[in-house]
Design goal:
Helix content is 27%, strand content 29%. By secondary structure, it is α+β, with helices and mostly antiparallel strands. It folds into 3 domains: 280 residues, 2-Layer Sandwich (BirA Bifunctional Protein, domain 2), CATH 3.30.930.10; 128 residues, YbaK protein (Alpha-Beta Complex), CATH 3.90.960; 105 residues, 3-Layer(aba) Sandwich (Rossmann fold). Strands 3, 7, 8, 9, 10, 11, 12, 23 and 26 form a 9-stranded mixed sheet that branches. A hairpin with a 2-residue loop joins strand 1 and strand 2. Helix 1 packs across helix 11 and helix 2 packs across helix 11. Bound molecules: adenosine-5'-triphosphate (ATP) and magnesium ion. Adenosine-5'-triphosphate (ATP) binds next to strand 8, strand 23, strand 26 and helix 11.
């Protein structure tokens, strides 16, 4: 491809609307263009990257038993009402009405469509397992479209669905997908970490997310330095430790003037925060919930929501707390009635805690569970954090940020039951098909590759997904001998099967080198009057600092050899 002919224009200035590195660089490199918030055109260079990612994904899906098909974007709303997920997606669902007043949605995902399709095609256990998949555009009216391709409102996804006759079958399909995902990310030169993920209150079987570690990631990951346990913070477990408090003592009131927060109360009473109990208030589906947790810990709202099995959870306002007769700042689970109490299991890790007195500026000493208060639910509702102990091996936990580039999920049977996807088993009994779903954000992967591979000059594409392998960069004035040699080398490299982006523009070396660095093509081959004097070209890897001279004679074979070497090696 000749740069002079390509539909792309690089920018010197970073567009103001871009926050993340990948968004900035994709815009500056002229690879994407925004049409409307969260909706982008892929220009030719980005589209080549995307197709390479797709090819790798397709090869691995096929190898794992997948079969590709293509489902419609336009879907009837009533199919979503049948599964009940129109409510779960809520405002995220793009709605439209056709000329016959029929309500339609733009598919945010395809479980409903594929389950209906499978229900029409599967009769008996002999028809299972099945692993249909597609690569397709999804539509979600995200509340915060951000980061360019990282979170769009129209985006590309690979989605595979597994249908099995029994749990063992689901486990096999799930494992095959986990393996395939590991292969995909490593083949793309984009190492991703599989972490345990929250699977919600329903269907809650198993779920893993694949995370590309990057500062700009929206997700927090907790990882054990000892055993390698890794989980999304939404799900992560940690050792909370015991707090010695001695034998239970008599409950007593203590005045705490001016002290309301845990820090203030523990400073005032000279006790560490872990000797206190913290109260946090939520509204769960419109009902006030009193969450109690040890003072040094924080509530994990995903865990709380799962335990409450509610669909809507938010912090309660002070007015809502007061309306229940509770004194915010001195709230107490002791002698509380009429409010649902959910306690973190850390309340059993010690004795003689400090808790609110339910009177302004008053607290209670020597609060002991279950002597002094009760809870409707006791569970782990705490947010794990770096520095705590690993619940598996006792090792030390650390925290990092990640970009979720893939998600695999054991769905179970709730959708097949709702949508009537049954099969007849060996005994002649009708049973719901057991499902799994497996997504990869293709555009998000492209953006994550940049988040992980860039420097202050631009993108550094991992070789397997680079739009082109070689940036051929002749430095010449019109009509010079360099131009002629460059044309010849362009042809030689292309004939040898090397993917070349040929900067055939008459531009200064500065402009060409800057664009080469910005576009991030892995191997730059420069020919100038100076290299020509030595009958050679300069070879420089975008990732490396040093360059070397290579003889022009046999340069195509040498270039191809170097690329193959890097493709095969660990460093891409
Ligand atoms: P997130 O938590 O980031 O919103 P999700 O859990 O909604 O993701 P899934 O429904 O599991 O995502 O979709 C599968 C994959 O599709 C995700 O792992 C992610 O890589 C990608 N993806 C999801 N939403 C978007 C989006 N708005 N833009 C780009 N990619 C997305
Ligand atoms: Mg989402």
């Amino acid at each position: 491809m000749r740069v002079s002919k390509m539909l792309t224009r690089t920018l010197k200035e970073t567009p103001a609307e871009a926050e993340t590195i990948s968004h900035k660089l994709l815009l500056r490199a002229g690879m994407i263009s925004q049409l409307v918030a969260g909706v982008y055109t892929y220009l030719p260079l980005a589209w080549r990257v995307l197709r390479k990612i797709e090819d790798i994904v397709r090869a691995e899906m096929d190898a794992a038993g997948g079969q590709e098909l293509s489902m419609p974007v336009l879907q009837p709303l009533d199919l979503w009402q049948k599964s009940g997920r129109d409510v779960a997606f809520g405002k995220g669902l793009f709605n439209l009405t056709d000329r016959r007043e029929r309500k339609l949605v733009l598919g945010p995902t395809h479980e409903e469509v594929i389950t209906q399709l499978v229900s029409q095609n599967v009769r008996s256990y002999r028809d299972l397992p099945l692993m249909p998949y597609q690569m397709q555009t999804k539509f979600r009216d995200e509340p915060r479209a951000r980061g360019g391709l990282l979170r769009g409102r129209e985006f590309l996804m690979k989605d595979l669905y597994s249908f099995d006759a029994d749990e063992a079958g689901l486990a096999r399909s799930y494992d095959a997908m986990l393996q395939a995902y590991h292969h995909i990310y490593s083949r793309c030169g984009l190492p991703a970490l599989a972490v345990e993920a929250d699977s919600g209150a329903i269907g809650g079987k198993a779920s893993h997310e694949f995370m590309v570690i990057a500062e700009s990631g929206e997700d927090e990951i907790i990882r054990c330095n000892g055993c390698g346990y890794a989980a999304n913070v939404e799900k992560a477990e940690a050792v909370k430790g015991e707090v010695s408090g001695g034998a239970p003592l008599l409950l007593e009131e203590v005045a705490t003037p001016g002290a309301a927060t845990i820090e203030e109360v523990s400073a005032f009473l000279k006790v560490p925060p872990q000797r206190t109990l913290k109260a946090v208030f939520y509204m769960a589906d419109g009902q006030l919930v009193f969450a109690v947790i040890r003072g040094d810990l924080d509530v994990n709202e995903v865990k709380l929501k799962n335990n409450l099995r509610c669909t809507d959870l938010r912090m309660a306002s002070e007015a809502e707390v007061n309306a229940a007769g509770i004194v915010a700042g001195a709230a107490s689970p002791v002698k509380l009635s009429g409010v649902r109490v959910v306690a973190d299991d850390s309340i059993t890790s010690g004795t003689n805690f400090i808790a609110g007195g339910n009177r302004p500026e008053t607290h209670l000493r020597n609060v002991n569970y279950p002597r002094d208060f009760s809870a409707d639910i006791i569970a782990d509702i705490a947010r794990a954090r770096a520095g705590q102990g690993c619940a598996r091996c006792g090792g030390s936990l650390s925290a990092m940020r990640g970009i979720e580039v893939g998600h695999v999920f054991k769905l179970g049977t709730f959708l097949s039951e709702k949508l009537g996807a049954f099969f007849v088993d060996e005994k002649g009994e009708s049973r719901p098909i057991i499902m799994g779903c497996y997504g990869i954000g293709l555009g998000r992967m492209l953006a994550a590759a940049i988040e992980q591979n860039h420097d202050d000059k631009g993108i550094i594409w991992p070789l397997p997904i680079a739009p082109y392998q070689v940036y051929l960069c002749p430095l010449y004035r019109e009509g010079s001998a360099v131009a002629e040699v460059a044309e010849k080398i362009y042809n030689e490299l292309t004939s040898a099967g090397v993917e070349v982006l040929f900067d055939d523009r008459v531009e200064s070396p500065g402009v060409k080198f800057n664009d080469a660095d910005l576009l991030g093509i892995p191997l730059r081959v420069t020919i100038s009057p100076r290299t020509l004097d030595k009958n050679s070209a300069e070879m420089k890897w975008r990732r490396d600092k040093e360059s070397s001279l290579a003889p022009l004679e046999g340069i195509a074979g040498r270039g191809k050899g170097l690329i193959n070497e890097r493709m095969a090696g660990a460093q891409v």
